[in-house]
Amino acid sequence: MNASEWLASRRPAPPAKLAQRLESALSEFLSSPEVTPSDALAVAAAGILRRLMSEVSKPSSRREEAIDLLAADALVTYAIEAAADECDSFAERTEAVIARLAVLAD
Predict the structure, then answer these.
(1) CA within 13 Å, CB half, 55
(2) Residue-range domain boundaries for the chain
(3) Mean pLDDT, to the nearest integer, of 27-55?
(4) Which of 1, 75, 96, 100 is deepest in the core (most CB within 10 A)?
(5) Distance between CA atoms of 65 and 15, rounded to whole angstroms?
(6) Could you tell me which of 71, 11, 67, 86 has the C-alpha nearest to residue 41?
(7) Rounded (to 5) percent helix, strand, coil in the chain
């Protein structure tokens, strides 16, 4: 199951605008079966956050920033949920999510 399929299985489903932003962030992982949903979701979240952090000094729409922050938050939450789906590697996958996000603080 890829990240998009995993995301589509979530109930309740996210609101339409947020779901669209999540799919957009995941687009590069949709056809990669070798990337776990947890990894794809974490990488997508990190990508959004990295872009937002690099654009901090640039003027932008607050609404656009809000949906991006909501999407990043949802993606991190979903990455942990996806990691929990594989009990044997939960700790390892959760640590990978945290590590992926921690590098953004440097």
Answers:
(1) 13
(2) 3-105
(3) 81
(4) 75
(5) 17
(6) 71
(7) 75, 0, 25
